[in-house]
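Data availability (excerpt). The following record was deposited with the supplementary files.
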Amino acid sequence: MAAVAAWRRDGFVVLPGYLAGPDLELARAGLTSIYPSAEDYHADPSSERNRVYTGDEYGGVTSFPFPKVALCNLAVHDKVIALVEAAFGTEDIRIYASELWAKYSGATTYEQEHHRDYLNHTPLAPSSDIRWRGLEMFIWLSEVTEEHGPTHLVPLSVTEGLPAVPHVQRRHERPALYEQEVSGAGPAGTLVVYSTDTFHRATELAALGADRYSIHVSYRHADNTWTSRHSWGDRSFHPDWRPFVEQATLRQLLLFGFPPPGHPYWTSETLEGVATRYPGLDVTPWRGRVQSEA
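Predicted structure:
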């Protein structure tokens, strides 16, 4: 797969319109109940609903689970899972973070300097072994032109040999990084897939009266236990967690650490407990392979 080869070689790949289709449109429809539209925001940025987005580049971040199941499902879409499995060369993968993000032009400064994300994803340093990379991606929920603040990325060949720290490279210190960066602009449904050791940056949302919506999602090889950001045990207390779990597929739940059928965790006791916690979840895949308690 060319996309996988590019991610492994360059540290990123841009896949225009990769998730375009009914699932994307269903997810996009849920945005209006979560965030103000561009028109609503720019009509009164100082209103009670809107001022959270003003002056804070992360003010529009909503962590997984999202208020709409269709948006949750996009982060673990079958096509996303297939891509990540191919990238790591295994089905044994985990999702370790996901965030919904809204931006509004003029709300704040979104421009960033080039940086690598490993610093707040792992206590260790980057490795050239793909098993120990974190795989991140942006899913554009709206069209992102160059005026809508696309992520810009630098090929690994340009940054080869740079030390593990500092993880930020400023324009006046490393102008070549900014001169050789590649834009992640693309239509809604585009995936910008990159590695935690890839230098990248947010650019300014310059279009007047505009908005931009995306999902950020992070995956890892299951053996890479030191790469982490969100605790799903902690997030399972959130009221939006159960609606997602109860309609999720077995494959999706395995991404969050649910033990597979036949795992020693599954006994009549634990099966009953999970079924009680999630009344709408079909536990049939686990029921046929419950461990003996004798």
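Summary of structural features: The first strand starts at residue 12 and ends at 15.
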